Amino acid sequence: MASHRRPKPASRTRVTVLTATAAAAVALTAQSAHADPKPTKSEVKAKVDKLYEEAEQATEKYNGAKEQQSKLKKQVDDLQDNVARGQADLNKLRGELGALASAQYRSGGIDPSVQLFLSSDPSNFLDKASSMDQLSAQQSEAVGKIQSKQRSLAQQRQEAQDKLADLSDTRKQLGEKKKEVQSKLAGAQKLLNSLTAAERSALNAADARSSRASSRADLGSDLPASQVGGAALAAAQSKIGSPYVYGATGPGSFDCSGLTSWAYAQAGASIPRTSQAQASAGTPIYSTSALKPGDLVIFYSDAHHVGLYAGNGQVLHAPKPGASVRYESIGNMPFKLGVRI
Protein backbone atom coordinates (compact mmCIF):
# COMPACT_ATOMS: atom_id res chain seq x y z
CA MET A 1 0.00 0.00 0.00
CA ALA A 2 1.46 3.37 -1.12
CA SER A 3 2.57 5.87 1.44
CA HIS A 4 0.61 9.12 1.70
CA ARG A 5 3.00 11.08 3.94
CA ARG A 6 3.10 14.90 3.48
CA PRO A 7 6.13 16.49 1.72
CA LYS A 8 8.76 17.80 4.14
CA PRO A 9 8.48 21.62 4.43
CA ALA A 10 11.43 23.76 3.34
CA SER A 11 13.84 24.70 6.05
CA ARG A 12 13.37 28.18 7.54
CA THR A 13 17.11 28.82 7.12
CA ARG A 14 16.96 28.00 3.42
CA VAL A 15 14.06 30.40 2.88
CA THR A 16 15.88 33.16 4.68
CA VAL A 17 19.05 32.72 2.54
CA LEU A 18 17.05 32.73 -0.69
CA THR A 19 15.15 35.85 0.38
CA ALA A 20 18.35 37.69 1.32
CA THR A 21 20.00 36.73 -1.96
CA ALA A 22 17.07 38.00 -3.96
CA ALA A 23 16.99 41.25 -2.02
CA ALA A 24 20.68 41.79 -2.62
CA ALA A 25 20.26 41.17 -6.33
CA VAL A 26 17.43 43.70 -6.50
CA ALA A 27 19.50 46.25 -4.55
CA LEU A 28 22.52 45.81 -6.81
CA THR A 29 20.32 46.15 -9.88
CA ALA A 30 18.78 49.35 -8.51
CA GLN A 31 22.21 50.69 -7.51
CA SER A 32 23.66 50.07 -10.94
CA ALA A 33 20.65 51.69 -12.51
CA HIS A 34 21.07 54.82 -10.37
CA ALA A 35 24.92 54.90 -10.28
CA ASP A 36 26.55 58.21 -11.14
CA PRO A 37 27.43 58.23 -14.82
CA LYS A 38 31.08 58.49 -15.78
CA PRO A 39 32.07 62.18 -16.06
CA THR A 40 32.38 63.50 -19.57
CA LYS A 41 35.64 64.76 -21.04
CA SER A 42 34.55 68.38 -20.57
CA GLU A 43 33.58 67.73 -16.93
CA VAL A 44 36.94 66.12 -16.24
CA LYS A 45 38.70 69.07 -17.87
CA ALA A 46 36.77 71.53 -15.72
CA LYS A 47 37.67 69.62 -12.54
CA VAL A 48 41.31 69.32 -13.60
CA ASP A 49 41.51 73.05 -14.37
CA LYS A 50 40.05 73.79 -10.93
CA LEU A 51 42.62 71.55 -9.25
CA TYR A 52 45.40 73.24 -11.22
CA GLU A 53 44.15 76.62 -10.04
CA GLU A 54 44.13 75.42 -6.42
CA ALA A 55 47.62 73.97 -6.92
CA GLU A 56 48.82 77.34 -8.17
CA GLN A 57 47.35 79.08 -5.12
CA ALA A 58 49.27 76.65 -2.93
CA THR A 59 52.38 77.12 -5.09
CA GLU A 60 52.45 80.87 -4.53
CA LYS A 61 52.15 80.30 -0.78
CA TYR A 62 54.95 77.75 -1.07
CA ASN A 63 57.06 80.31 -2.94
CA GLY A 64 56.41 82.89 -0.22
CA ALA A 65 57.43 80.47 2.52
CA LYS A 66 60.55 79.52 0.57
CA GLU A 67 61.53 83.17 0.16
CA GLN A 68 60.91 83.78 3.86
CA GLN A 69 63.05 80.76 4.69
CA SER A 70 65.95 82.19 2.66
CA LYS A 71 65.69 85.56 4.43
CA LEU A 72 65.51 83.98 7.88
CA LYS A 73 68.43 81.67 7.10
CA LYS A 74 70.59 84.67 6.15
CA GLN A 75 69.52 86.57 9.27
CA VAL A 76 70.35 83.58 11.47
CA ASP A 77 73.75 83.15 9.78
CA ASP A 78 74.55 86.86 10.24
CA LEU A 79 73.51 86.79 13.89
CA GLN A 80 75.55 83.68 14.58
CA ASP A 81 78.59 85.26 12.90
CA ASN A 82 78.11 88.38 15.04
CA VAL A 83 77.87 86.25 18.19
CA ALA A 84 81.08 84.40 17.27
CA ARG A 85 82.94 87.65 16.64
CA GLY A 86 81.49 89.13 19.83
CA GLN A 87 82.63 86.15 21.84
CA ALA A 88 86.16 86.57 20.45
CA ASP A 89 86.10 90.26 21.44
CA LEU A 90 84.85 89.31 24.90
CA ASN A 91 87.66 86.79 25.34
CA LYS A 92 90.17 89.46 24.34
CA LEU A 93 88.72 91.95 26.85
CA ARG A 94 88.88 89.32 29.58
CA GLY A 95 92.54 88.69 28.69
CA GLU A 96 93.32 92.37 28.96
CA LEU A 97 91.56 92.56 32.32
CA GLY A 98 93.57 89.57 33.53
CA ALA A 99 96.81 91.28 32.54
CA LEU A 100 95.79 94.39 34.46
CA ALA A 101 94.89 92.33 37.52
CA SER A 102 98.25 90.53 37.39
CA ALA A 103 100.12 93.84 37.18
CA GLN A 104 98.18 95.15 40.15
CA TYR A 105 98.88 91.98 42.15
CA ARG A 106 102.61 92.24 41.49
CA SER A 107 102.63 95.78 42.93
CA GLY A 108 101.66 94.27 46.32
CA GLY A 109 98.54 94.31 48.41
CA ILE A 110 99.76 96.67 51.21
CA ASP A 111 97.66 99.73 51.90
CA PRO A 112 99.08 102.69 49.92
CA SER A 113 99.40 104.92 53.07
CA VAL A 114 101.42 102.21 54.82
CA GLN A 115 103.60 101.75 51.73
CA LEU A 116 104.28 105.49 51.75
CA PHE A 117 105.18 105.44 55.48
CA LEU A 118 107.59 102.52 54.98
CA SER A 119 109.05 103.67 51.71
CA SER A 120 112.72 104.68 51.69
CA ASP A 121 112.04 106.80 48.63
CA PRO A 122 108.69 108.62 49.07
CA SER A 123 108.92 110.44 45.73
CA ASN A 124 109.39 107.14 43.87
CA PHE A 125 106.41 105.65 45.74
CA LEU A 126 104.21 108.59 44.81
CA ASP A 127 105.07 108.03 41.17
CA LYS A 128 104.06 104.35 41.56
CA ALA A 129 100.85 105.31 43.36
CA SER A 130 99.91 107.57 40.45
CA SER A 131 100.50 104.65 38.11
CA MET A 132 98.28 102.49 40.35
CA ASP A 133 95.45 105.01 40.08
CA GLN A 134 95.74 104.89 36.31
CA LEU A 135 95.81 101.11 36.46
CA SER A 136 92.63 101.06 38.54
CA ALA A 137 90.92 103.39 36.07
CA GLN A 138 91.92 101.13 33.15
CA GLN A 139 90.68 98.11 35.07
CA SER A 140 87.33 99.75 35.74
CA GLU A 141 87.01 100.69 32.09
CA ALA A 142 87.83 97.11 31.04
CA VAL A 143 85.19 95.71 33.38
CA GLY A 144 82.64 98.13 31.94
CA LYS A 145 83.48 97.01 28.39
CA ILE A 146 83.14 93.36 29.36
CA GLN A 147 79.75 93.91 30.96
CA SER A 148 78.51 95.84 27.90
CA LYS A 149 79.76 93.12 25.55
CA GLN A 150 78.10 90.41 27.64
CA ARG A 151 74.76 92.20 27.48
CA SER A 152 75.10 92.65 23.72
CA LEU A 153 75.98 88.98 23.23
CA ALA A 154 73.05 87.83 25.36
CA GLN A 155 70.68 89.96 23.28
CA GLN A 156 72.10 88.66 19.97
CA ARG A 157 71.93 85.06 21.17
CA GLN A 158 68.26 85.51 22.10
CA GLU A 159 67.53 87.12 18.75
CA ALA A 160 69.25 84.23 16.98
CA GLN A 161 67.18 81.71 18.96
CA ASP A 162 63.97 83.56 18.04
CA LYS A 163 64.95 83.58 14.35
CA LEU A 164 65.78 79.87 14.51
CA ALA A 165 62.30 79.20 15.92
CA ASP A 166 60.77 81.26 13.08
CA LEU A 167 62.90 79.35 10.60
CA SER A 168 61.68 76.04 11.99
CA ASP A 169 58.03 77.15 11.68
CA THR A 170 58.62 78.36 8.13
CA ARG A 171 60.23 75.07 7.12
CA LYS A 172 57.22 73.22 8.52
CA GLN A 173 54.87 75.49 6.56
CA LEU A 174 57.00 74.93 3.46
CA GLY A 175 56.60 71.18 3.78
CA GLU A 176 52.84 71.46 4.25
CA LYS A 177 52.42 73.66 1.18
CA LYS A 178 54.57 71.34 -0.90
CA LYS A 179 52.37 68.39 0.11
CA GLU A 180 49.26 70.41 -0.73
CA VAL A 181 50.58 71.22 -4.20
CA GLN A 182 51.53 67.60 -4.81
CA SER A 183 48.11 66.42 -3.61
CA LYS A 184 46.29 68.78 -6.01
CA LEU A 185 48.48 67.73 -8.92
CA ALA A 186 48.01 64.05 -8.07
CA GLY A 187 44.23 64.57 -7.96
CA ALA A 188 44.31 66.20 -11.37
CA GLN A 189 46.39 63.37 -12.80
CA LYS A 190 44.00 60.78 -11.34
CA LEU A 191 41.10 62.49 -13.09
CA LEU A 192 43.00 62.59 -16.37
CA ASN A 193 43.81 58.90 -16.00
CA SER A 194 40.07 58.18 -15.74
CA LEU A 195 39.69 59.25 -19.37
CA THR A 196 40.20 56.91 -22.26
CA ALA A 197 43.40 57.18 -24.28
CA ALA A 198 41.44 58.82 -27.09
CA GLU A 199 39.92 61.42 -24.75
CA ARG A 200 43.32 62.27 -23.23
CA SER A 201 44.78 62.57 -26.71
CA ALA A 202 41.99 64.97 -27.71
CA LEU A 203 42.61 67.16 -24.66
CA ASN A 204 46.36 67.23 -25.29
CA ALA A 205 45.79 68.11 -28.92
CA ALA A 206 43.47 70.98 -27.99
CA ASP A 207 46.04 72.34 -25.54
CA ALA A 208 48.79 72.01 -28.15
CA ARG A 209 46.67 73.92 -30.68
CA SER A 210 46.11 76.62 -28.07
CA SER A 211 49.86 76.89 -27.45
CA ARG A 212 50.67 77.08 -31.16
CA ALA A 213 48.03 79.72 -31.76
CA SER A 214 49.07 81.78 -28.74
CA SER A 215 52.72 81.79 -29.78
CA ARG A 216 51.66 83.74 -32.89
CA ALA A 217 49.42 86.25 -31.10
CA ASP A 218 48.77 89.60 -32.77
CA LEU A 219 50.26 92.02 -30.26
CA GLY A 220 49.35 95.21 -32.05
CA SER A 221 51.64 98.24 -32.06
CA ASP A 222 51.44 99.43 -28.44
CA LEU A 223 54.60 101.05 -27.12
CA PRO A 224 56.28 99.47 -24.08
CA ALA A 225 55.49 101.11 -20.74
CA SER A 226 59.18 101.77 -20.22
CA GLN A 227 62.59 100.60 -21.31
CA VAL A 228 62.74 98.10 -18.44
CA GLY A 229 59.19 96.86 -19.16
CA GLY A 230 60.00 96.30 -22.82
CA ALA A 231 63.21 94.47 -21.92
CA ALA A 232 61.34 92.25 -19.44
CA LEU A 233 58.72 91.38 -22.05
CA ALA A 234 61.41 90.57 -24.62
CA ALA A 235 63.12 88.26 -22.11
CA ALA A 236 59.83 86.46 -21.40
CA GLN A 237 59.11 86.11 -25.12
CA SER A 238 62.40 84.24 -25.49
CA LYS A 239 60.97 81.58 -23.14
CA ILE A 240 57.77 80.82 -25.07
CA GLY A 241 57.34 77.05 -25.05
CA SER A 242 59.18 76.52 -21.74
CA PRO A 243 57.25 74.16 -19.43
CA TYR A 244 55.37 75.17 -16.30
CA VAL A 245 56.90 73.62 -13.18
CA TYR A 246 55.74 74.63 -9.71
CA GLY A 247 58.38 76.54 -7.74
CA ALA A 248 60.59 77.01 -10.83
CA THR A 249 62.29 80.33 -11.60
CA GLY A 250 64.05 79.48 -14.84
CA PRO A 251 65.86 79.46 -17.04
CA GLY A 252 64.49 76.15 -18.32
CA SER A 253 61.08 76.07 -16.61
CA PHE A 254 58.87 78.46 -14.68
CA ASP A 255 55.80 78.93 -12.56
CA CYS A 256 53.81 82.14 -13.10
CA SER A 257 55.70 84.48 -10.75
CA GLY A 258 58.94 82.67 -11.50
CA LEU A 259 58.62 83.81 -15.13
CA THR A 260 57.85 87.44 -14.31
CA SER A 261 60.58 87.78 -11.66
CA TRP A 262 63.10 86.12 -14.01
CA ALA A 263 62.11 88.36 -16.93
CA TYR A 264 62.51 91.54 -14.91
CA ALA A 265 65.84 90.31 -13.54
CA GLN A 266 67.07 90.00 -17.15
CA ALA A 267 66.00 93.62 -17.63
CA GLY A 268 68.09 94.67 -14.61
CA ALA A 269 65.17 95.13 -12.20
CA SER A 270 64.61 93.16 -9.02
CA ILE A 271 60.97 92.45 -8.13
CA PRO A 272 59.54 90.19 -5.39
CA ARG A 273 59.26 86.46 -5.93
CA THR A 274 55.52 85.86 -5.42
CA SER A 275 52.52 87.14 -7.35
CA GLN A 276 50.99 88.60 -4.17
CA ALA A 277 54.15 90.59 -3.44
CA GLN A 278 54.50 91.62 -7.09
CA ALA A 279 51.01 93.13 -6.88
CA SER A 280 52.52 95.84 -4.63
CA ALA A 281 55.84 96.22 -6.44
CA GLY A 282 55.02 99.29 -8.56
CA THR A 283 52.37 101.72 -9.71
CA PRO A 284 48.92 100.08 -9.68
CA ILE A 285 46.76 100.17 -12.82
CA TYR A 286 43.09 99.37 -12.39
CA SER A 287 41.90 99.37 -16.01
CA THR A 288 42.98 96.95 -18.71
CA SER A 289 42.71 99.78 -21.25
CA ALA A 290 45.54 101.61 -19.46
CA LEU A 291 47.97 98.68 -19.64
CA LYS A 292 51.15 98.89 -21.70
CA PRO A 293 53.34 95.99 -22.83
CA GLY A 294 55.73 94.99 -20.06
CA ASP A 295 53.30 95.77 -17.24
CA LEU A 296 52.62 93.01 -14.75
CA VAL A 297 49.05 91.71 -14.85
CA ILE A 298 47.66 90.28 -11.60
CA PHE A 299 44.71 87.87 -11.75
CA TYR A 300 42.13 86.56 -9.25
CA SER A 301 40.97 88.25 -6.05
CA ASP A 302 43.76 86.71 -4.00
CA ALA A 303 46.40 87.65 -6.61
CA HIS A 304 47.62 84.08 -7.05
CA HIS A 305 48.45 84.40 -10.77
CA VAL A 306 50.57 86.90 -12.69
CA GLY A 307 51.72 87.45 -16.25
CA LEU A 308 53.20 90.16 -18.47
CA TYR A 309 50.95 92.31 -20.63
CA ALA A 310 52.02 91.78 -24.23
CA GLY A 311 49.69 94.20 -26.05
CA ASN A 312 46.40 93.93 -27.94
CA GLY A 313 44.58 92.27 -25.04
CA GLN A 314 47.15 89.47 -24.71
CA VAL A 315 49.11 88.37 -21.65
CA LEU A 316 52.30 86.29 -21.76
CA HIS A 317 52.43 83.87 -18.84
CA ALA A 318 53.27 80.42 -17.49
CA PRO A 319 49.69 79.12 -17.23
CA LYS A 320 49.53 75.75 -15.42
CA PRO A 321 51.09 72.30 -15.04
CA GLY A 322 51.18 70.44 -18.31
CA ALA A 323 51.23 73.68 -20.32
CA SER A 324 54.04 75.91 -21.52
CA VAL A 325 54.83 79.63 -21.49
CA ARG A 326 52.45 81.21 -23.98
CA TYR A 327 50.21 84.14 -24.89
CA GLU A 328 46.59 84.10 -23.81
CA SER A 329 43.68 86.50 -23.88
CA ILE A 330 43.64 88.69 -20.80
CA GLY A 331 39.90 88.04 -20.55
CA ASN A 332 40.37 84.32 -19.91
CA MET A 333 41.07 85.00 -16.21
CA PRO A 334 39.56 87.46 -13.71
CA PHE A 335 41.65 90.65 -13.86
CA LYS A 336 42.60 92.21 -10.51
CA LEU A 337 45.05 94.96 -11.45
CA GLY A 338 48.12 95.84 -13.46
CA VAL A 339 51.45 96.94 -12.02
CA ARG A 340 53.93 99.22 -13.77
CA ILE A 341 57.52 98.69 -12.62
Descriptive tags:
single chain; 62% helix; alpha+beta; 8 helices; six-stranded antiparallel beta sheet; 341 residues
Which helices and strands appear, and what pairs or packs with what?
Layout: H1 12-34, H2 41-106, H3 112-118, H4 122-193, H5 197-214, H6 227-237, H7 256-266, H8 275-278, E1 283-285, E2 296-299, E3 305-311, E4 314-317, E5 326-329, E6 335-340
Antiparallel strand pairs: 1-6, 2-3, 2-6, 3-4, 4-5
Helix pairs in contact: 2-4, 3-4, 6-7
Structural commentary:
The chain is an alpha+beta fold. Helix content is about 60%, strand content about 10%. The chain has eight helices and six strands, in the order ααααααααββββββ. It has a six-stranded antiparallel β-sheet with strand order 1-6-2-3-4-5. The longest helix has about 70 residues, at about 120-195.
Count of individual helical segments = 8
The whole-angstrom Rg is: 39 Å
Largest sheet: 6 strands, antiparallel
- Class of secondary structure makeup: alpha+beta
Strand order of the largest sheet: 1-6-2-3-4-5
Distance between the termini: 115 Å
Q: Sum up the overall morphology in one term.
A: elongated
- Helix content class: 55-70%
Unreliable spans: 13-22, 24-33, 113-119
- The whole-number mean of residue pLDDT values reads 79
- What proportion strand? 5-15%
The string of secondary-structure elements, in order, is HHHHHHHHEEEEEE
Oligomeric state, counting identical vs distinct chains: single chain
